[in-house]
Amino acid sequence: MLNNIENINGILKLSFSPFYDLRGNLLKIYQKETFKNIFKDIEEIYISSSKKAVIRGLHFQIGKKAQDKYIYCISGALLDISVDLRPDGNFGNICVEELKGGDPIILGIPGTFAHGVIILEENTTFMNMSPTPYSPGDERGIRWDSLGIKIPFQHPIVSEKDNSLPPLDLVLKGLKNL
């Protein structure tokens, strides 16, 4: 059951009430009728599992292919990182939110934000739901280490693709000129 919706500079933080009984608990994180005014129809859902110290992102898609994302941490812990790319919003603002496995929280990240995660614990698994399918040709990104966020480990595990993304200042300058 949906308890609360908090708006954090354009990112929705949804809190839920699990159902508990002697068997354990049940957490319903999506029901079309309940969420029809919050989430658009979900087009794809994927589950990602990572080792501690993995950094994924920051990614975004441009134009009509922009992907809203709804993030739920199933197990472990992660830092969810978003950068506001709305020209009329809080352009360039960075939002960091810790999600822990089993917490009854979903983050709703608009498609007008770049998004990534920093994995804090071994065997962290999270779910990403989106109403827009992934479109490789429309994907852009921001280099993870250009945000000024202190990470809690010395040797992050980052893909070659993510390491080759441009820094935040160049991305913001390019978006301002559109």
Could you explain how this protein is built, in words?
The chain has 178 residues and is mostly beta strands. The chain has one domain: Jelly Rolls (Sandwich). The protein has 3 helices and 14 strands. β1 (2-8) and β2 form a beta hairpin. It is globular.
Number of helices: 3
Number of domains: 1
Order of helices and strands: EEEEHEEEEEEEEEEHH
Helical content class: under 10%
CATH architecture: Sandwich
Features:
Jelly Rolls; globular; six-stranded antiparallel sheet; single chain; 178 residues; EC 5.1.3.13; dTDP-4-dehydrorhamnose 3,5-epimerase activity; 3 helices; mainly beta; RmlC_Cupin_sf
In brief:
With 178 residues, this protein is mainly β. The protein is built from 3 helices and 14 strands. Strand 3 and strand 4 (24-26) form a beta hairpin.
List the helices and strands and how they pair.
Elements: E1 2-8, E2 11-16, E3 19-21, E4 24-26, H1 32-35, E5 44-50, E6 54-61, E7 69-75, E8 77-84, E9 94-100, E10 105-109, E11 113-119, E12 124-130, E13 139-141, E14 157-158, H2 160-163, H3 168-176
Parallel strand pairs: 6-14
Antiparallel strand pairs: 1-2, 2-10, 3-4, 5-12, 6-11, 6-13, 7-10, 7-12, 8-9, 8-11
